[in-house]
Amino acid sequence: MIEMLDVWKTYPNGTNALEGINVKIEKGEFVYVVGPSGAGKSTFIKLMYREEKPTKGTILLNGFNISKLKERQIPKVRRSIGVVFQDYKLLPKMNVYENVAFAMEVVEATKKQTKPRVLEMLELVKLKNKLRSYPSELSGGEQQRVSIARALVNSPGTIIADEPTGNLDPETSWEIMRIFEEINLRGTTVVMATHNREIVNTLRKRVIAIEGGRIARDQQRGEYGYEG
């Protein structure tokens, strides 16, 4: 569960990115975060995994008040979430298996625990045949699937995705979305910032629309709703 209570974010240059955000996302939901460029979507997403801190207000993530966390507590809380980025953020000198396994090494999993779990996740994203390949040898869609496997490998309750199809062609974007749907059907909460109108309007989920740093709409089975 994720909850924001009267959350504001003002950057050092005086820009108000978010103003008075109140939202609650329940376990198992699939939520799109949409809005024009510069509306505050990325800030909204970054606050959820404590990449940014709110200027004011409270953010609850799985029972933790992450707006008040000490720096040493952040890694523990981040283990309960997985993050998928637009630009994949894979480690170039590690192969597919090593990139996914690294996420388990960080939480001090044993090799006996790591191998079957990594192979299970690579099976889920249909990349078991590429486990010895390096990121430079993969297509953009394959790199994003590795990123998803890495985000899932520690069994997080929530996946936060920031424009996960932004660098991909339409066909590959749909392949990635099918994986996110499967993840959600298995019980994982998915929160996704996206500009992809077609995906939002076809796979009708909850839509939180942000405009000018405020929530303009919050609709079940919503639509994208922007021309830009």
Give an overview in words.
This protein has 228 residues and is α/β, with parallel strands linked by helices. 32% of the residues lie in helices and 26% in strands. The chain contains 7 helices and 10 strands. The strands form 2 sheets. It has a 6-stranded mixed β-sheet with strand order 6-7-8-3-9-10, with helices on both faces. A 4-stranded antiparallel β-sheet has the order 2-1-4-5, covered by helices on one side. α3 crosses α4 and α3 packs parallel to α5. The longest helix is centred in the last third of the chain and has 16 residues. The two termini are 31 Å apart. The relative contact order is 0.20. The model has no long low-confidence stretch (mean pLDDT 93).
Count up the helices.
Answer: 7
Radius of gyration: 17 Å
Residue share in helices? 25-40%
**Order of strands side by side in the largest beta sheet?**
6-7-8-3-9-10
User: Which parts are unreliable, with pLDDT below 50 for 5 consecutive residues or more?
Assistant: none
Number of strands: 10
Q: Quick one: overall form?
A: globular
Layout of helices and strands:
Layout: E1 2-10, E2 16-25, E3 30-34, H1 41-48, E4 56-61, E5 64-65, H2 74-78, E6 81-85, H3 96-106, H4 111-124, H5 140-152, E7 158-162, H6 170-185, E8 189-193, H7 197-202, E9 206-211, E10 214-219
Parallel strand pairs: 3-8, 3-9, 6-7, 7-8
Antiparallel strand pairs: 1-2, 1-4, 4-5, 9-10
